[in-house]
Amino acid sequence: MKCEHCTRKECSKKTKTDDQENVSVDAPSPARENGEKGEFHRLADAKIFLSDCLACDSCLTAEEGAQLSQQSTKEFFRVLNLNKRCDTSKHRVLVVSVCPQSLPYFAAKFNLSVTDASRRLCGFLKSLGVHYVFDTSIAADLSILESQKEFVRRFHQHNEERRALPMLTSACPGWVRYAERVLGHPVTPHLCAARSPQQVMGSLVKDYFAKQQNLAPEKIFHVVVAPCYDKKLEALREGLSAAPGAQGADCVLTSGEVAQIMEQSDLSVKDAAVDTLFGDMKEATVRRHEGAGSDGHLAHVFRHAAKELFNEHVEEITYRALRNKDFQEVTLEKDGEVLLRFAAAYGFRNIQNMILKLKKGKFPYHFVEVLACPRGCLSGRGQAQTEDGHSDKTLLRQMESIYADIPVQPPETSAHLQELYQAWLGSPGAQEVLHATHTSPVRCLGSLDIRW
User: Fold this and answer.
1) Core-most of 43, 295, 401, 409, by most CB within 10 Å?
2) Measured distance CA(199)–CA(246) in Å, rounded
3) For the chain, what are the domain ranges?
4) Whole-model pTM above 0.90?
5) Which residues pair with 251 in a beta bridge?
6) Residues 6 or more apart from 43 whose CB is under 8 A from it?
């Protein structure tokens, strides 16, 4: 049976509804192993089905499978319970970072405005024992700004001998893992070197914030709330944090996993404002970047490139659907000449078509925003699913409407970005925390033999 993302003629990957032999990664309970019952032992444990992940071609090794088992509510509660014990040497500062694409899910799930949903989620997490709750928008600001700079640089460098274009975004871990593990050259050189918002947030928390709080990075337990399971795989990627030996994200929970915790909890919750990385300030409003269901790399890079390269100010961006609604293009034209041609390719079927044309040298685009999930990050399988594993289209439409109403704030207008660039990234070599090197594929040995 083929999965909805598969482009192979045969696929051995099972879905949740196929049979009871579906492979899952389920962490052994630390409390169970030690004969202990923590305060939160009554809460149900969420299993991670490999069918929920969009990574491809037997790419989970046995070691990664073991590490992935720590990306669970059990690990989160284990740290919470350790913090309630008398042995302060084992206490850690709990930090939770929430992706903007997760907030519409909580708003729709609990019938709240997106601002109230943010405050309710923050208050609930702090009632559990979380010390700080951040919004990852500031990390997306940095990721977008670095992507803008890189595109302009690539545009100037592009020629027949050195084909620097198209530039393909690297914010989606499912797509990046597929590109690295399966496609390799000639695709990986086109991947944007700017780190994803989750990776940047890991560096912000474990390096910038840790220094502000005079904490060793390993004393912080950083949890990311995200819409898809691939973010768990992204957290396993080596070398994400600025601090040696410190993992940027210690645990990733999907929006659905957190909502399940909230529904099963009987804790008294008081709403609270989201924290910022800058002293005692609080986030006044929820904001997002321009994009129907993503962090909006395409729109922001397009406007920047038009101004920087051709001195053209673009107010309204017009998307034109081509093959389907998940493959759209945006062009900048002057005197009948196309100056810039950008595209958005969502879902693996569109990605496959893109790669085929790229390899044949018949791909006309300068820049492509690539996302593994059809319709973008809002439809991540960690939040936009029914109980039987199918896409919840009614919920997704509601989430898209909520997300569209969130105010858009361009990254250039962020009040604290210059402070970060000067105080945090001003030292020689410090900006390496914003950039990644994309590897060629390595055939995994001892994998779990899950093919797409």
Assistant:
1) 295
2) 12
3) 61-138+197-264, 143-195+289-414
4) no
5) 223
6) 73, 77, 260, 261, 264, 265
Reading the block at residue 371, the tokens are 């996302």
Going by CATH, does the domain composed of 143-195+289-414 fall within 3.40.950.10? yes
| SS3 state at 262 | helix
| % of the chain surpassing 70 pLDDT | 80
143-195+289-414 matches 61-138+197-264 in CATH topology: no
Token pair, residue 366, equals 């300068």
Over residues 245-295, the pLDDT tens digits come to 468 999 999 999 999 999 999 888 899 999 999 877 787 789 999 887 788
Total residues belonging to the chain:
452
Indicate the SS3 state at residue 432: helix
Q: Name the residue type at position 153.
A: R
With contact defined as beta carbons under 8 Å apart, do 265 and 43 qualify? yes
Q: How far is CA 312 from CA 149, 303, 333, in A?
A: 17, 8, 10
How far apart are alpha carbons 413 and 410 in whole angstroms?
6
Closest CA to 377 of 295, 321, 301, 290: 295
Cα–Cα distance between 150 and 166 in angstroms, integer? Answer: 12
* pLDDT at residue 37 in the model: 43
80-110 burial, b for 16+ CB within 10 Å, e for fewer? Answer: bbebeeeeeeeebbbbbbbbbbbbbbbbbbe
Phi-psi region of 197 (alpha: psi -120 to 50; beta: other; left: phi over 0): alpha
d(CA 90, CA 80): 11
333-382 pLDDT, tens digit per residue, is 999 999 999 999 999 889 999 999 998 988 999 999 999 999 899 999 89
For CA atoms 346, 348, 353, 355, the dihedral sign is positive
pLDDT tens digits for range 412-434? 888 788 888 888 887 655 567 88
- According to CATH, the topology of domain 61-138+197-264 is Rossmann fold (3.40.50)
